[in-house]
Each structure stands twice: as C-alpha cells, then as structure tokens.
Amino acid sequence: MEPFRDQLNIDTPELVDIEMPLAGVGSRFIAILIDYLIYGAFFTVLILIAVVVIPALHMFSNVSANWAVGIFFLILFLIHWGYFSLFEAFNNGRTPGKQAAKIRVIHQSGRGISFFESLARNLVRFVDWMPSFYALGIVVIFLSKRHQRLGDMVAGTLVVRDRIADQPHWSASTSRTITGAALAAESPIPPPHLRVVLPAPALAKLSANDLEVIEGFFSRRLDMDLTTRAALAGRIASALCAKSGLEIAPNTSMETFLEAVAHQLRELGRMH
Fold first, then answer.
1. Which label site among 21, 99, 143, 159 has the fewest CB atoms less than 10 Å from its CB?
2. Residue 257: Cβ within 10 Å count
C-alpha cells in the first residue's frame, strides 16, 4: 500500500524519521483568504491617507507632493513583496493567515526557512496566481506529490500542518473549586534544566556545532511524535556524553539534560 500523500517522512541527520502532515488546498485557501483581508486593509488605509495627504501637499509645494507620491509607491511595493516574505522568514514560517489556519512553511529538509527562501517562493507567487486567484497554483498542488505550488518547488519549501497541542488533563465534565489558597502567591520554581549543574571542563569539550545540533532538535521537537522525540533526544544525549564525559544525573530526562547543556554552553560562550 502506498503512503498517504498528505504525510511527509523526513530523514534527519541523526537518522531518525520525522513524520509531518502536509497542508492541503483547504487550509491553504483559508490562510490566503485571511492574509488577503489583512493585506487589503493595509492598502485601504494607505490609499485613504494618500488621498488626504498628497492633495494637501500640492497646495504648498509640488516637490513635496512628488516626494509623497514616491514614498507612497515605495510603501506599496514593500507591503506587496514584504508581507508574506517577512512574516514567513521571521515568524517561524507563519503569516497571520497561516497561523489562524494552523499551518506553516518549512524547508523540505524539515528546518525552518530563511529569508531568501521565503523571498524566492513569494517572488513566484504571481505565476501561481495565473490566470486568476491561484488557478495554476492549485492545479500544481494537486499534481505534486508533496502538495507544492511552483513557488515551493523553486525554493525547496513545503507547507505543513501544525500538530494539535495536547489537551489539558481536566475534562470538560470535571468540576473543580479553586480556593483562595490555590491562588496564593508562591515563590517561583526554576525550570528543571536550571537545577542541573554540569562540570565546566566536560562542557568545554563540546563545540558550537554540538550546540547547533541541540538547538536543531529543539526547533523540530514539537513536530515529532513522542516516541521519535524521545529516541532522538536519547541519541543526541548519548553522543554528547561520549564526546565530553558528561553524565546524566538520575531522575533527569534526556530533554532536561539537553536543555541544561545548551543553556550552560551559551553561558560559557558569553564568558569567553
């Protein structure tokens, strides 16, 4: 039996498979609709301001009015090309519309996308739009094994669905009474990884590349199922211990250990 077309398997450098659900046309349509409503609101406000400001400047100076027209078109250009590219590059692959639709853009290797990759996929957006409202892009998505439009193929990107966050343990039918004692202020408890103290000589044997591997795991772990996530954390932790001589304290989880290593490596970097 062939695998589902809406499921992507990514082989990580650590030789662990990550399964990621691909976004379909429906969720992408919702995202683009919301984005164009926001996008249109920007244009409407900008045009209303221009309609008031530019004629007023004409009354004082044609030079000032010409500058205002130039600035107006520059802002239009920046909004047109920057809205999607900047949001996707600096908001973890999400525009406001994608965030509402619970989807995001990633590189086909599983990492987040860079600004230039985001810019590349959005420069081809006008081709995907042809002949009107993404008709070509929709056809290409249906024909693509990875649900990619032309912009995605050029930039090597994919649009995936965010995993649904775990539901709270309290069920809707459970009634609970919150007393004043429960709301009383308590002294803050430090995160578990801040309570783990690692020997500096062993940490010094680790490099910036090791920190990059740990942070790569942190950036992807929410997209992994619990079994894959635990296996990958164990592999990375074992490799770090073998290289540095670090030991994982009893009752310390692999992820807490990795968080402690990353935190203390950053602190060492700041002191040097």
1. 143
2. 25
